[in-house]
Hints:
Layout: E1 3-9, E2 31-33, E3 39-44, E4 51-55, E5 59-62, E6 64-65, E7 70-75, E8 82-89, E9 92-94, E10 111-114, E11 132-140, E12 145-153, E13 167-171, H1 180-183, H2 187-196, E14 204-208, H3 228-244, E15 254-259, H4 261-272, E16 279-283, H5 299-305, E17 308-314, H6 320-333, E18 338-342, H7 350-360
Parallel strand pairs: 13-14, 13-15, 15-16, 16-17, 17-18
Antiparallel strand pairs: 1-11, 2-3, 3-7, 4-5, 4-8, 6-7, 8-9, 8-10, 11-12, 12-14
Amino acid sequence: xxxxxxxxxxxxxxxxxxxxxxxxxxxxxxxxxxxxxxxxxxxxxxxxxxxxxxxxxxxxxxxxxxxxxxxxxxxxxxxxxxxxxxxxxxxxxxxxxxxxxxxxxxxxxxxxxxxxxxxxxxxxxxxxxxxxxxxxxxxxxxxxxxxxxxxxxxxxxxxxxxxxxxxxxxxxxxxxxxxxxxxxxxxxxxxxxxxxxxxxxxxxxxxxxxxxxxxxxxxxxxxxxxxxxxxxxxxxxxxxxxxxxxxxxxxxxxxxxxxxxxxxxxxxxxxxxxxxxxxxxxxxxxxxxxxxxxxxxxxxxxxxxxxxxxxxxxxxxxxxxxxxxxxxxxxxxxxxxxxxxxxxxxxxxxxxxxxxxxxxxxxxxx
Length: 366
């Protein structure tokens, strides 16, 4: 049975910067974006002996204690974007308690600094029709428990009861949860804007959890399952989505993509199931050249089955060499592909993931 909790329907989520204080004293604005795009970080503590801030565009910076037990530092300037950050208080990493925007991850919980004023309009929250984002629980017979999906439906999905939509399966990276492409990737807002501008097709986006073995207590995941994600995706998630949403169920109306490990998972499943997917996207991905080796042996046959093979990576990404070698393999094999490179988004980051979405979504289902 489907259990859906509507997170957003026909409205934009508030992304305003936090103005509240840490608990137990006078209010203090924890992040202040200055006119020159530097950022002042403030943290109030009566007991801390040492406080630092770690922010993606500046690294780890020492903070200085001032009046009213407020520790402060100004860093930057930074290019407008969304940056993870955390405070390091006496050696312990903690989120900003006054900021409701945070990075869901298996191993860390950073807060998010939203500096998008002046950034790409496509990544901002604009006055356009907004789609909905649902948190969905599905029962997995393979795992014997419930799994979680985050699913975007385009504006007016509920009104157009007879309309069916293409589907994009979008997988987050290593240690990322199913929420990251929503909360950090801002997939919904990017698509809302592209659809409003007539640049992207209306589509459903399904965001699964790429590491379902962690649904189980440590060491208790079933060993016989092998590639648990691929089995649940193909045998359970896709049938569940197609039963409960109005989807166009053929290869020319399905796309699959992902960031980092999720990109490798996307390519593995896409290339192994070219009867199910015509659009493949790899965003800053670790890619294994041994993936379905038969697809590289007959380029004409492979090219006839794939409408878009899109790959993006930063030249400063630690996975760049691996990604470039895979691109070279595609070129050497005669497989048509589209490549996008960046050099200004701090490497293996969600700044790149958002940018790659912005660039590739307009090409899907055309």
